[in-house]
Amino acid sequence: MTEDPTTATGSTRSHIVSRFHKAFKHASELVALLSASGSNATSTDLLEAIAYASSLKGFEALEKERWEAALQAFAVSRSIYSTLSADGKNDAFPELLTEIAEPSIRFSAYKLQLPRSMDIAAIARQYFPRDEEHSRVVAELEKLDPTVFAEPMEAESTGAAGTVTSVTWRGRTAPVEGADISVKLSNAQTAEAAYNSQDHRGSTDAFDAVLLAWQDAVDATRKTIDERQAEGMSMSDQKMQILQLTWTVVNYSMICWRVGRNRVMISNIMSGPKRSSKKQDAAPVKEVSGKKIGHLKEEIALYDAILQVCSRPTSPSTKYISNPPTRV
Questions:
Q1: 183 with 161: CB under 8 angstroms?
Q2: What is the pLDDT of residues 257-310, one digit of tens each?
Q3: CA terminus-to-terminus distance, the chain
Q4: Burial of residue 251 (number of CB atoms within 10 Å: 0-12, 13-18, 19+)
Q5: Count of domains for the chain
Q6: Which are the contacts of 20, defined by CB distance < 8 A and separation ≥ 6?
Q7: How far apart are CA 47 and CA 76, in angstroms?
Q8: What is the CATH number of the domain that holds 116?
Q9: Rounded to an integer, what distance in angstroms lies between the CA atom of residue 191 and that of residue 183?
Q10: Which domain holds residue 41?
Q11: Are 82 and 48 a contacting pair, CB within 8 Å?
Q12: pTM value surpassing 0.90
């Protein structure tokens, strides 16, 4: 069904729903056992069991096309996995967060036609059930992270990263789809401004922060495109075209900075440390020639890297990058 949902018959769907419901009942029994006073279960054990049960409940709701119920269920599992993964002790929690909870929230939000500008954390906070049944979950999560359900402060008052609302490519301006992309673009622009405000003559390390920021923007855009494709959105859809334009902009910017970094490295090799005339005169001819050849090989490798990065396709549609970057 994952590969081709249209192949599933009505009886197959009913069977899948039945299995998810049965699995949810078993997981709920596990939660009840761990909640008992004599279980000796830790709060992490209990929260993990609740997150697992909520995920199964969410999958059942997805199969029944009950999008709001699915959002509420996955909001619980997302909040738990996000909080438990903060300490970095268990690699399974981030995987469950990014591969199960968050894609399911995004898909349900898409079906409910929620604004694309809402990030997943905001959706999870909004749809987290605040009934008596989940009051213990709220209490346990707030013990681990008091800010788990707190609304983020305004950027002006906290100094948090700003957002970018639009991008422009060759005279065409398009809105930024997705809060995560918007923040990453803002971070990249901030990194560029910090670089340009200082004298980094001859330094390649200074490029690292800018390249890292643009790589984050590339990754965020690619992730959003993959999510839209998983939702069944066509590449000809207007929103997908907007994402493709954003993908082009972030890749072009990263290429420019990579080229700039390689050019600085070439300049450093060409103007390398000068040796004194005595040492130079005393050095054997073979040694000097060997070093020159080594430097030439390094320069060729860097020039080749520039050509490779300029000619490499950067998106499913390569028509946007038709000229080598010349900005840097």
A1: yes
A2: 887 777 777 676 666 554 444 444 444 544 545 555 555 555 566 556 556 655
A3: 48
A4: buried
A5: 2
A6: 56, 59, 60, 63
A7: 10
A8: 1.10.3450.40
A9: 12
A10: 5-151
A11: no
A12: no
